[in-house]
Amino acid sequence: MSSNLDQLYRQVIMDHYKNPRNKGQLGEDTVTINMNNPTCGDRIQLHLKVVDGKIADAKFDGEGCSISLASASMMTQSVKGLSVEDAIKLAHIFYDMMLGKDYDDTSFDLGDIEALQGVSKFPARIKCATLAWKAMEKGVGNEDEI
C-alpha cells in the first residue's frame, strides 16, 4: 500500500474516532449488547433496533483505542438499513479483510470500512477492530467465531 493511501486511511480512522457517527443510546424496543476486549480494555455497548428482519437503527457507547471506536462508528453506519442476513454477510467480509484473506468487495460498498484493512498487519489489534462487529452479531443472534 502506498504511503499516501496509508495516510488517507489513518485520516479516515481518526475522523471516525474523533467524530464518531451514531454515538449514544437508542430508546425503547432495542437490543443492548455489552462486550469488552480484556487484552487492551476496549469496551463497547451496542444498541440495535431490529424491525421486520432489518437493522432499523444502531448506536454505540464505549471507550477504547482509536481502532475500536472508529470501527464501531463505521459498523453502525454500514449496517443501518440492512437486513440482518446482509449485516452478517458484511461482518464476515470484514473478518476476512481483518485476517488478510481475500474478501468480496463487490457485494457491498465498503466505503470507510476499507480504511481498516491495514489492521490485518497487526494481529494484536484485530480484536480491537472486530469488537463492535462481534457485538452486532451477538445482538442479532448470530455468534459465529472468526
Key words describing this protein structure:
iron-sulfur cluster binding, 146 residues, iron ion binding, 4 helices, Sufe protein. Chain: A, 3-stranded antiparallel beta sheet
Describe the structure.
Belongs to the NifU family. Residues 9-128 form the NIF system FeS cluster assembly NifU N-terminal domain. It holds the Pfam family NifU_N. There is one protein chain. With 146 residues, the chain is an alpha+beta fold. It has a single domain (3-139), classed as Alpha-Beta Complex (Sufe protein. Chain: A), CATH 3.90.1010. Helix content is 42%, strand content 18%. It contains four helices and three strands, in the order αβββααα. A three-stranded antiparallel sheet has the order 1-2-3. The protein is globular and about 45 Å long. The chain starts with a helix and ends in a 7-residue tail after the last helix. The mean pLDDT is 92.
Task: Produce a short descriptive summary.
Pfam families: NifU_N (PF01592). 42% of the residues lie in helices and 18% in strands.
Major sheet attributes: 3 strands, antiparallel
**Helix and strand element order:** HEEEHHH
> Which regions have little confidence, pLDDT < 50, spanning 5+ residues?
none
The radius of gyration is 14 Å
What is the tally of helical segments?
Answer: 4
Q: What is the name of the CATH architecture?
A: Alpha-Beta Complex
Q: What sort of overall outline do the alpha carbons produce when their principal axes are compared?
A: globular
In round numbers, the mean pLDDT is 92
Q: Span between N and C termini?
A: 25 Å
Number of domains: 1
Q: Strand order within the widest sheet?
A: 1-2-3
Helical/strand content category: alpha+beta
CATH class: Alpha Beta
Helix content: 40-55%
Binned strand content: 15-25%
How many strands? Answer: 3
CATH fold-level label? Sufe protein. Chain: A
